[in-house]
Each structure stands twice: as C-alpha cells, then as structure tokens.
Amino acid sequence: MCMTDRSMCTSAPALRLIAFNSARWIPTREEWILANRLIQRSEAERISRFAFKKDAKASMMGRLLLRKLLADFRISNSCDDLERNSDERPILKRPTRGFDFNVSHQGNFSVAVAGFCGKLGVDIMQMQYTGGRTIPEFFRLMSRQFTEDEWVYIRRPSDEKDQVANFYRMWTLKESYVKAIGVGLAMDLQRINFSVCEQLRLGEQLRSTTVKVDGTARPEWTFHEILVDDEHCLAVAVFGQDDKSVGRCEQIDSFGQVVSNLQPRTETCSDVDDRLVDELWSQFKERAEKPCL
Predict the structure, then answer these.
(1) 4'-phosphopantetheinyl transferase domain spans which residues (predicted)?
(2) To 5 degrees, how large is the angle CA 8–CA 10–CA 11?
(3) How far apart are alpha carbons 253 and 261 in whole angstroms?
(4) What helix, strand, coil percent values describe the chain, rounded to 5?
(5) What is the spatial distance between Cα 241 and Cα 239, in angstroms, rounded to a whole number?
(6) Which of 180, 44, 39 is CA-nearest to residue 102?
(7) Closest CA relative to residue 90, chosen from 70, 116, 117
(8) What is the largest CA-CA distance in the chain?
(9) CA-based angle 101:241:20, to the nearest 5?
(10) φ and ψ at 238, to 5 degrees?
(11) In whole angstroms, what is the distance from residue 187 CA to residue 94 CA?
(12) Residue 120 has pLDDT above 90, yes or no
C-alpha cells in the first residue's frame, strides 16, 4: 500500500526517530532467517559480505527499522518497495509526496528517521576514537573536513576526550546535512559551517545549532541533536518542516518489536529460498563479532 499525502496518515506524528542497540542483539537462527526474508534479496546478499557480525547486525537492523517506520506511517509494508539511488541512499520506488526517511548505524546503534517534510538526514556516531594515532595526528588528517570556526569549537576543551566528543558531534551534523540533500561526502565539507550554541545533555533534544552554506545562513534547516546514551550522539537534519519537534528518540528493546507488523517478501520457489537463507545463517554464525584490537 502506498499513500500519497499526509492527510491519509493523520494518526501518525510528523516525524519519528527510532533506535535499536544492535550490538546487544544476539540473533537466533530463526531471527536471522526471518530478518533476511524481511529485506530485499539483494540487501541480504550485500549484508552477507560483511566480515564481522557487528557490522552485519547493524546494517540489517537499519533496513528493518526503515521498514518498521514505513509500515507505521502506512506508506508501505513490502520490502520490494525499497531501493537505493546512485548515491546508495535508500529511497522508495514509488515516492510518497512530502515524505522522506533516512538511516544510520555506527558504534552500538542503528537509527532511522521518517516523516512528512521536505528532506531528512540522520547520522549517529560513537564519541570514541580508536584509530591508533594520537588525537593531534588524527585531527591533522581530518583538517579539511571542518572550517576554522568549527575547529575552534572542537579544540575548545582542554581534555582530549571532550575534544573527540565535539569532533564527532560536529561530524554527525555534517553527515546529516549531506545525507539529507543526497550528495554524500563527495561535497566539500568546508562549504558547510555549523555554529553550536549549547552543550549536549542526556535526556534533552537541542535545536539551537545553525548552519551556513557557502557563507549564507540557511534558516530553513533545523538540526535536532540528541545524546542516545553517554557514548553516542546523533543529529537529524530537517528541511521544510513547520513543526520543529522531532520528538524523543524511541529506543526499541527487542527484535520482535521491530518486526511484529512486517510482511516477508513473497518467493516463487520457497524451497530454493530456504536453502539460500539457511546458507546466510551458516555464514553469519561462523563470523567473529568484531575485529580483535
């Protein structure tokens, strides 16, 4: 079912943001096979190529969260309605007027946002650097990703841990914007300059951050920033939305809650599909959870 305007979904909120701690999810055989049947076959095959369980789970849950939001908004309950554009952004084969959605996964969480507005982008980051270099070396390598003013904000704290937190907060803002406009990180990020007015606090949503693009203020964009927990921050970029509230970040606790109303794809040859998904489970369970540090 594909609806064409917000008036047909009057019971749904304007925007919804949901999160799932995919790192804590230990799929059973039945859950993993069901999950693979709830996404497109091409997506299942793509996820099967991940080297580690953590990455496979995060990507899988991202696709399932998108499907949940589409079903909850009564936009679609078919996995075949989802596809990717040339920039790998998830889109609907038959777009619904005035509706957009986006997904992100990093660290322990997968998150998805959807709603009736012009454009949406979301990004989540774990505020922890594990790259092996010193923080000054890491910052030097990333110097061209931020403007001078943004680097002043990032380096303002004396404690390196706080600097890293500021870095990843700024990164989520940049990424949410470029994902919303659909260009990915191919854009010169120094064209985008964020001004941060408040510190993030657990349990609060900030909407005070502003952006300039090519030196021009863009007040039509709203950025919603949230600490999901003590280690993860996220940003949602919203364009063309009068209601400035995304609402709370809904954390979903169980696999069953995510998939309860989702319909699996229909197959013309179920015995072939049974063999394929069973092979996907065998591949998944043999992998390490994450790289050894």
Answers:
(1) 120-236
(2) 125
(3) 16
(4) 40, 25, 40
(5) 6
(6) 180
(7) 70
(8) 62
(9) 35
(10) -125, 125
(11) 27
(12) yes
Q: Is the confidence at residue 6, as pLDDT, over 50?
A: no
Q: Which helix (H) or strand (E) holds 16?
A: strand 15-21
Confidence category of residue 244, pLDDT binned at 50, 70, 90: low
Least confident of 32-41, 244-253, 267-276: 267-276
Q: Is the pLDDT of residue 22 over 70?
A: yes
- Tell me which DSSP letter residue 249 carries: E
- pLDDT at residue 278, rounded to an integer: 78
- Which of 178, 151, 188, 184 is closest to 167 using CA atoms? 151
Which amino acid would we find at residue 86? S
Residue 174 CB-half CA count within 13 A: 22
Mean pLDDT throughout 5-21?
67
Please answer whether residues 78 and 70 qualify as being in contact, where contact means their C-beta atoms are separated by less than 8 angstroms: no
Distance CA 124, CA 175 (A): 9
pLDDT band at 200 (very low <50, low <70, confident <90, very high): very high
**∠ at Cα 139 (135, 145), nearest 5°?**
150
